[in-house]
Amino acid sequence: MSGSTAAPDRPDERLVRTSPLRKLLGRPELGSVVGAAAVFLFFAIVADSFLRASSFGTVLYAASVLGIMAAPVALLMIGGEFDLSAGVLVTSSALVSSMFSYQMTANVWVGVLVSLLVTLAIGAFNGFMLTRTKLPSFIITLGTFLMLTGLNLGFTKLISGTVSTKGIGDMEGFDSAHALFASTLTLGSIQLKVTILWWIALVAVATWILLRTRFGNWIFAVGGEADAARAVGVPVIRTKIGLYLGVAFAAWVSGQHLLFSYDVVQSGEGVGNELTYIIAAVIGGCLITGGYGSAIGSAVGAFIFGMTSKGIVYAEWNPDWFKFFLGAMLLLATLLNAWVRKRAEATT
Amino acid sequence: MTATPDSTAGATAGAQADAEPPTGSGPLVELDDVSKFYGNIKALEHVSLEVHAGEITCVLGDNGAGKSTLIKIIAGLHRHDGGRFLIEGEETVLANPRDALDRGIATVYQDLAVVPLMPVWRNFFLGSEPTTGFGPFKRLDVRMMRETTRTELLRMGIDLRDVDQPIGTLSGGERQCVAIARAVYFGAKVLVLDEPTAALGVKQSGVVLKYVAAARDAGLGVVLITHNPHHAHLVGDRFVLLKRGVMSGSHTKDDITLDELTRQMAGGSELEELSHELERTPAPTLPGASTATDDTP
């Protein structure tokens, strides 16, 4: 009996040496990286202008707008929950900021800060309702999604008389806010939007939190096995509310970008984006049931999305094909992920 | 028996060091006439037990006897509705599992409270992760976490293939041992084990029981929940028998034999009745003929 458990001096004979390649195969984002390379090659071949430096800036911009939201949504999914209200929350955030500044004729920064508070409050509401009622997050955030969609349109019409807000381009503080949320940086011949920096920063922070902090450990735990997590003392409720606050913060950043890149906001925007965020996270290797995934994967997912949406334009195809590509990509990526994970786990 | 084990338990304590008065020979945890109701259902009534340092208290009972309810009360998942719950002589109501952990009561559940997809080292420290650095750079002490997991498991005799492998890929016995090692490392004074051998084979059960005994020898008070009297009698010092939510017996090792324990555990007289019934069944006939010979006069 003791023979089987006594510590041997040599490495365990049951252990096949793990090659670095095998370790790489075990990473959640691997499938998406392979997918991204494939998409890149595909459009590099079919679309001549795809490889131009200027195109690169455009692709990155499209990716960043999505990626800013996809990172916290990925964390939320690893934590085992969904947020269907994330798409319209971006619009709500922009609307609050714009209308508060305009109606109060205040410095736009006041509106920006008020918007931050309101957006975080909505995120907290999602998290609070979820943890209090213990209903599925799908239902709770579907409710928030519909309510926000209605509120966006209703309030905007009530206050502005139309479906879009009044322009705030000439108001105090607009220029500095524009610089922070919607400016363009020129790097050689490439035009880079500032959202790309926000994107990189958010993904870096999300990755840091996920892999190197206690909170990150808790995210994996509440998504993987919430009861077990609670039993060993993980604050499950606080973790989930924190994740919704993260999504809300990113929605605020995206909302301000939306507002300051055009100076008006269409109140009907944002519907449907919530699914795109989830798609990017899933393509990036997040398990739909929670407990597994990565923030970097969500960035790769967003990058695939950016390449596809712009690549179709550069290939001079009808953009109607985009949705088909996205769907096919989602299926392929998920299949590839499942296959890779199975291979990697079978050999441990 | 009190001084030395206590100090070794204190030495392994990483998390809590406060409130450690020399408790003499009093029980670490004592339930006195405890009851629990779920609505109008009496889950547990008038149950008393004592857990002493360096001893194993076994709770035996059939399915539905109230073992799980008892565990949940000690672990802080449920509050008791009647009677007294004393920790080191002090009457207590635990608010949540964290509260129980802070008071040195660690519970290893049947489903083990591990997150299958997470690596072993992350699971080992889950809920009590050590950090290093300050302010925004406060981060997990990953190196220490990996090394400690490895060495602590080695001390229990488990040479893990890879601390990075998902804990779900370990065998049931190994997982059980990881959970026990975790509790011991975090300085538990009382270790509650929920059917640690239920799903295991003979050999694995033996391994797990050895770790249970090792935890006892380290000075911990152990509560071992089981429905296997053989395992219980092998390591136990005290035995509490539960039957349909009430206590049907309470013994120390000196005043009960394995046979008697098995008899009581199996329902005593009920088992005798059953054995009579079984004896009365006709002697085994040939398989082919069995249906035909049913009611022959």
UniProtKB/TrEMBL annotation, chain A:
Protein name (record): Xylose transport system permease protein XylH
PANTHER family, A to Z: ABC TRANSPORTER PERMEASE PROTEIN YPHD-RELATED-RELATED (PTHR32196), XYLOSE TRANSPORT SYSTEM PERMEASE PROTEIN XYLH (PTHR32196:SF32)
Membrane topology summary: Multi-pass membrane protein
Provenance organism: Streptomyces globisporus
UniProt entry keywords in alphabetical sequence: Cell inner membrane, Cell membrane, Membrane, Sugar transport, Transmembrane, Transmembrane helix, Transport
Stretches that traverse the bilayer: 30-51, 58-78, 109-129, 135-155, 194-211, 277-305, 321-340
GO MF annotations, alphabetized: transmembrane transporter activity
CDD domains per record: TM_PBP1_transp_AraH_like
GO CC, alphabetical: plasma membrane
Pfam families named among the record's database cross-references: BPD_transp_2
Function: Part of the binding-protein-dependent transport system for D-xylose. Probably responsible for the translocation of the substrate across the membrane.
InterPro entries registered for this protein in UniProt: ABC_transp_permease
Annotated localization: Cell membrane
Automatic annotation (TrEMBL), chain B:
GO molecular function list: ATP binding
Biased composition (Low complexity): 8-19
Keyword Transport: no
InterPro entries per record: AAA+_ATPase, ABC_carbohydrate_import_ATPase, ABC_transporter-like_ATP-bd, ABC_transporter-like_CS, P-loop_NTPase
A Pfam family annotated for this UniProt entry: ABC_tran
Keywords: ATP-binding, Nucleotide-binding
Domain annotation ABC transporter: ranges: 29-269
Record's keyword annotation contains Nucleus: no
Region (Disordered): 1-26, 268-297
Domain of life from the UniProt record: Bacteria
Polar residues bias locations: 288-297
CDD domains recorded: ABC_Carb_Monos_I
The protein's name in its UniProt record: Sugar ABC transporter ATP-binding protein
